[in-house]
Amino acid sequence: MANPRQRRKARSGKWSGATKSAKRSQQRRLKRAPTVMGPEVLRENWDPKLTVRQNYAKLGLVPTLASQSGGLDRNDPYAQVAPAEPSSSTDRPRKGMARVIRDESGQIVDLIEYSEEDHVETTPWGKQLNADEEEPVDQAASLLPPRLNEGRDTDTVQALEKIAAEHQPVERFASAGEHAWLVDLVKAHGSDVDSMAQDLRRNVWQKTPGEIRRALKKAGLAT
C-alpha cells in the first residue's frame, strides 16, 4: 500500500500546464490592462511598440546622461547621450610621466620624471590629506541633469507642465481619533511640544516634537 509521500510523487509529474481556458482568461486580463498609467496626454502619445526609455526620449522626458549604465543600441534613434566632458585630472602630470628637455637642434638632452610628491601641496603640518581627490561637486546640481531636448520642449512636455502648474495641493485633515489625542496633549501641556513628546503616558506612539508640531498645524490646534 502506497504511503502519502509516494502518492504525491506520483501526482507531481502529471501537471501539463495551464488549461486553454486559463490561458484565454490571462490574455483577456493582459489586453484590458492600460499601456501606461498617467495623464491622458501621456497615454495618447505613448507608443506601445517602443521601450520605456525610447518613449521617454521621444516625449522629451529623459535626461541627458554623461554615461549610460549597460550601454545603448547604436541603431536606436532615441539613444542620444551627451558626450562626456574630459576629466581635469589628466591636465596635470601624474606619476610615471616625464618632461622632455630638448636642445636647439631638437635632440633630447634630459628627462625629468614626475612623482606624486611633486604635485602635493604641503603645509606647516605636512602633506594635505586627500590631496589627490578632486574638488567636491554640487550634489544638488548633479541630481538634476538637463533634458535630452533642452531648449525645444515637445507638445507633451508643455501639456504636462501646464497640468502640473494647475495642480493644487490636497488639503489634509486630522482624523477624529488623532484630533482627540492632540486635544488631550494640548490640555495637559499647552503649546510645549517638547513636553508632549516626553509624555510617555499620552505619547504612546513616541512622536517627535517636529511630528507633533506638524500634527497640531494640520489639525488646526497650533497657536
TrEMBL record:
Main localisation: nucleus
- InterPro entries of this UniProt entry? Ribosome_biogenesis_Nop16
Compositionally biased, Basic residues: which spans?
A: 1-12, 21-32
Q: Where is it localised?
A: Nucleus, Nucleolus
Which biological processes are named by the entry's GO terms? ribosomal large subunit biogenesis
List the taxonomic lineage.
Eukaryota, Fungi, Dikarya, Basidiomycota, Ustilaginomycotina
Provide the alphabetized UniProt keywords: Nucleus
Q: Function, please?
A: Involved in the biogenesis of the 60S ribosomal subunit.
Kindly provide the name given to this protein in its UniProt entry: Nucleolar protein 16
- Note down the stretches annotated as region Disordered: 1-40, 66-102, 114-139
Query: Is Zinc tagged as a keyword?
Result: no
Q: Which domain of life is it from?
A: Eukaryota
Question: Where does it sit, as one GO cellular component term?
Answer: nucleolus
Q: State the family it belongs to.
A: Belongs to the NOP16 family.
Q: Which Pfam families match?
A: Nop16 (PF09420)
